[in-house]
Design a protein that fits this description.
alpha/beta; Glutamine Phosphoribosylpyrophosphate, subunit 1, domain 1; Rossmann fold; eight-stranded antiparallel sheet; seven-stranded antiparallel sheet; 18 helices; about 20% strand; globular; binds fructose -6-phosphate
């Protein structure tokens, strides 16, 4: 959601900014822009739409060795060229890009900017106008920048340039992610390391409410009082080739195919020399010390959390509640005496989850983050982190992160069970190995799911997924996948709930996809399939080997009953992928969606 890139060095900046913005496209955006600076002043290029349009608009004859760029996902004001970033102050001296939401926008406008006529509908413009107003008094840009930042309430990642100074980019952040990249003779600013990996793998974290002055050969971190802060850089552990599509038509298909190797990598990472599970002792202790686990997550990660609850309760006998992050703060349940908060987040940057983390930390409760990005905000701010080892996930629709989350939750559950002396009758690492092979056999049968997608989803306006028990959680994820990338209105229901209302929606030809991988509900879910079929639904049953019936559409090879979500979701992901493809949708960048949801 929104992306920032900045560069100050000795080479021309346009390509670095445009390449960086392309790498940030996956976060979701609806307009984009760059500003470059040279002796002639600031050159501003903005478009509504894709970076490809921006590339066409940028004047290639302009040479400049510093600049800032932005992809905008509209919050205040419609997606348009006027509202696209960068924004400029009234005189044109200052130019800014911003991610986040300024909550005291009206207060600042009324108190400081009564005499300024604003050119856009954005909350961002008030920041750059405020800096100019303050600088008119202070005649000190660094001081004015710090003062302006201190007045802001809300979330922000900012990069500012001054047309009178080609030596500095002013940077600050609160809640929204932003990093400084370190190069040889140049430095960079980026929302995430993926934007600038081509240039460097060395980064410095910026903490909330700090400002940073980025020069060609020096980076100075300061507190809002102007006191210098020392911080060591770190090396980003992302391979630049991981963020290329290679021969795949879409990142989503590549990431679906990467699931078996990701499961194998997780086994490798969490296995000790005796082939037993190896988890951080402190995490084990935190699980043992807690009387209830509260899983907090959003979207697909929430769906993984629903499966995680079953795994932890059934294997480790620890009660678990799963909460939607954006609801938790407003509907906080009565907490147990010794809660452990577990944040599940692919990006580690989801603002809704982070606000729960901030709140529960204030209450003194321990927190574990399960994430694909170890240096992310949720990872840094929690007490413990479990890494998903899934490699960068670029497609907006999450696939390999979901299965990695479930696999890591399974290991957490097993580890806790073993620490409690609970005797499990299976070898979890071996079972996960079987899962990886089964996943592979499913991704090898893509044409089956392509055919099914064509048959079921080419014409339809809506679709229903049904399941019971563990399958109910998977069908919720299946329907989210379908709706977000194919725009088919899809819902995942508990089979037993159908006749309490939803069955009224079934018409002649309505697609209903049923999942049956759980022995205890196999009979009942098939009853639900009969009920919808009798009312005209076009049904598809995906079952698990051992529970299948002759008329089933597809039979999944057998895996341990508690691990079935890891394999049953694969056909669902492929169905959604091919449905979107057949409907000519932009699979990797679905409309209105952002990969990293950094505003609440
Ligand atoms: C859907 C999807 C989203 C994310 C959600 C949380 O395919 O990707 O629903 O799961 O926005 O994001 P993270 O996991 O980064 O906190």
């Amino acid at each position: 959601m929104c992306g920032i890139v900045g560069y100050i060095g000795n080479n021309d900046t346009k390509e670095v900014l445009l390449n960086g913005l392309e790498k940030l496209e996956y976060r979701g955006y609806d307009s984009a822009g760059i500003a470059t600076s040279n002796d002639e002043g600031i050159q501003l290029f903005k478009v509504k739409g894709r970076i490809a349009n921006l590339r066409e608009k940028v004047d290639n004859s302009v040479q400049s060795t510093m600049g800032i760029g932005h992809t905008r996902w509209a919050t205040h004001g419609a997606p348009s060229e006027e509202n696209a970033h960068p924004h400029q102050s009234a005189s044109g001296r200052f130019t800014i890009v911003h991610n986040g939401v300024i909550e005291n926008y009206y207060e600042i406008r009324d108190e400081y900017l009564a005499n300024v006529s604003l050119k856009s509908e954005t909350d961002t413009e008030i920041i750059v106008q405020l800096i100019e107003v303050l600088n008119d008094k202070n005649n000190d840009v660094a001081k004015s920048f710090r003062q302006a930042v201190a007045l802001l309430k809300g979330s922000y990642a900012l990069a500012l340039i001054d047309s009178k100074d080609q030596e500095k980019i002013y940077v600050a952040k609160n809640k929204s992610p932003l990093l400084v990249g370190l190069g040889d003779g140049f430095n960079l600013v980026a929302s995430d390391a993926m934007a600038t990996l081509k240039e460097t793998d060395r980064y410095v974290e910026i903490h909330d409410k700090e400002v940073v002055i980025v020069k060609r050969d020096f980076v100075e971190i300061q507190s809002l009082d102007g006191v210098a802060i020392e911080r060591e850089p770190y090396t980003a552990e992302i391979d630049a080739t991981d963020i290329e599509k290679g021969t795949y038509p879409h990142f989503m298909l590549k990431e679906i195919d990467e699931q078996p190797p990701v499961i194998r990598k997780i086994i490798q990472e969490y296995k000790d020399d005796n082939d037993s599970i190896k988890l951080d002792q402190d995490i084990r202790q935190a699980m043992l010390d807690s009387d209830r686990v509260y899983i907090i997550a959003a979207g697909t990660s929430y769906h993984a959390g629903l499966v995680g609850k079953q795994l932890i309760e059934k294997l480790a006998n620890v009660p678990v509640e799963v909460h939607i992050a954006s609801e938790f703060s407003y509907n906080m349940p009565l907490l147990s005496e010794k809660p452990l908060f577990v944040f599940i987040s692919q990006s580690g940057e989801t603002a809704d989850s982070r606000s729960v983390l901030v709140e529960t930390k204030k209450l003194g409760h321990p927190a574990l983050t399960i994430t694909n990005v170890p240096g992310s905000t949720l990872s840094r701010e929690a007490d413990f982190t479990l890494h998903l080892h899934a490699g960068p996930e670029i497609a907006v629709a999450s696939t390999k992160a979901y299965t990695a989350q479930i696999a890591v939750l399974a290991l957490l559950a097993v580890d806790t069970a073993q620490a409690k002396g609970i005797d499990l009758s299976f070898d979890p690492l071996q079972e996960l190995g079987i899962v990886a092979s089964v996943m592979e056999s499913l991704t090898d049968q893509k044409e089956e799911f392509e055919k099914l997608a064509k048959e079921f989803f080419t014409e339809t306006r809506n679709a229903f997924y049904i399941g019971r028990g563990m399958d109910y959680f998977v069908v919720q994820e299946a329907s989210l996948k379908l709706k977000e990338i194919s725009y088919i209105q899809a819902e995942g229901f508990a089979g037993g709930e159908l006749k309490h209302g939803t069955i009224a929606l079934i018409e002649e030809g309505t697609p209903v996809i049923a999942l049956s991988t759980q022995a205890n509900v196999n009979y009942s879910i098939r009853g639900n399939v009969q009920e919808v079929a009798a009312r005209g639904a076009k049904t598809c049953v995906i079952s698990l080997e051992g529970l299948e019936q002759e008329s089933d559409t597809f039979v999944l090879p057998h895996v341990h009953e508690l691990l079935t979500p890891l394999v049953s979701v694969v056909p669902m992901q492929l169905l959604a992928y091919y449905a979107a493809l057949h409907r000519d949708c932009d699979v990797d960048k679905p409309r209105n969606l952002a990969k990293s949801v950094t505003v609440e």
